[in-house]
Amino acid sequence: MSVAIFCLLFGWMPIASALQTQQLDSERVTLGDLIDGLEQIALELEANKTVKAEFEDLVKSHSLEGSNQQFLEFVRVRLAFETTRDGGLWGIRWTITNRDPNSIDIWYQFSQWNADENEFGQPTADAECDELSALCAVVARRLGVEGVGLFWPTPNHTVAVWETQGLNGKKARILLPTSQIFLGREERLGSQSFDPWQQKRIYPYEMKDVSDEFQLPAALVRALLEHTRRHAGKSSADLQAKRNERASRVGGS
C-alpha cells in the first residue's frame, strides 16, 4: 500500500492533500488496504485494558492456556467478530439470502457501496448466517488467525468457531455467534448456548473468497476503519448494546 493511501485511510494527513497525491482511480482502494488498516487497529488494541481483561475472563471460563500468542490471536479474532457480525461495526445486516456459504457476495455489495446514496448508518450489505460466519473467518485468517471455521449447531443455522489451545494439551472451542438466530440478545463472543463440540471437527475456513487486489470504494474503507477504531476498544457489553440498537433500528437478527 502506498504511503499516501495509508495516510488517506488513517487520517495522518488532510484528506484533500492526500487525494491530490493519488492516481486518477484513487476513489477505490483494495481489500489488502482494508486488512492493513485493521491490523493497525489490532496493534492498538493489544494495549487496551478492556480487551486484556476480557481475554483473562475467557481464559478462565474456557480453560485456555493463556499465552501471549493466544492473546494476540484473541485480539484479532475479537476484532474480526465485532466487525463482521450482524449489526456489528461494519454495518452488515442479517437476512435470508439462500446464497452459498462464503463471503463473496458481501464483498461484492461492499464494492457497490455509494457514499452519495447510502449513509454509513444504513446497512452496508445483507447476508445470511453462513455468509457472516465465512466473512468472520476470512477476516480472522487475513489477520493471521487460522483456527476459525464454520459450525452448524442446527442443520439450518451457522456460526463461526475459533479452535485454540486449552490447558493440558487439550483443544478449546470459542463460539463466535455472528448472528442472534436461536440466541438471546446478550449472547456474544464466548457464548456457551451452543455446544461447539457436537460437531466432530471444525474445519478452518481456508478460502480467501476474493483476492487482496479486490477493489473497494475508498470512502467505504475509510468509514469502516474509522468506525472500527472509534468503537472496537469498548467492552463487549457496550458493543452488544450497540449491536442490538442497530438491529432494532435497521433490522437483522
Question: What labels would you give this structure?
Answer:
single chain; 253 residues; alpha+beta; three-stranded antiparallel sheet; two-stranded antiparallel ribbon; 7 strands; globular
Quick overview of this protein structure:
With 253 residues, the chain is an alpha+beta fold. The chain has helices at 3-10, 15-20, 31-45, 49-62, 68-84, 104-111, 129-142, 218-231, 236-250, and strands at 28-30, 92-94, 125-127, 148-154, 157-165, 171-176, 215-217.
- End-to-end Cα distance: 36 Å
Envelope shape: globular
Number of helices: 9
Structural class: alpha+beta
Number of E-type strands: 7
Could you tell me the mean pLDDT?
89
The biggest beta sheet, please? 3 strands, antiparallel
Strand content: 5-15%
- N-to-C series of helices and strands: HHEHHHEHEHEEEEHH
In oligomeric terms, what are we looking at? Answer: single chain
Number of domains: 1
Over the alpha carbons, how many angstroms does the gyration radius reach? 18 Å
**Spatial order of the strands forming the largest sheet:** 4-5-6
Low-confidence stretches: 12-25
Percent of residues in helices comes to 40-55%
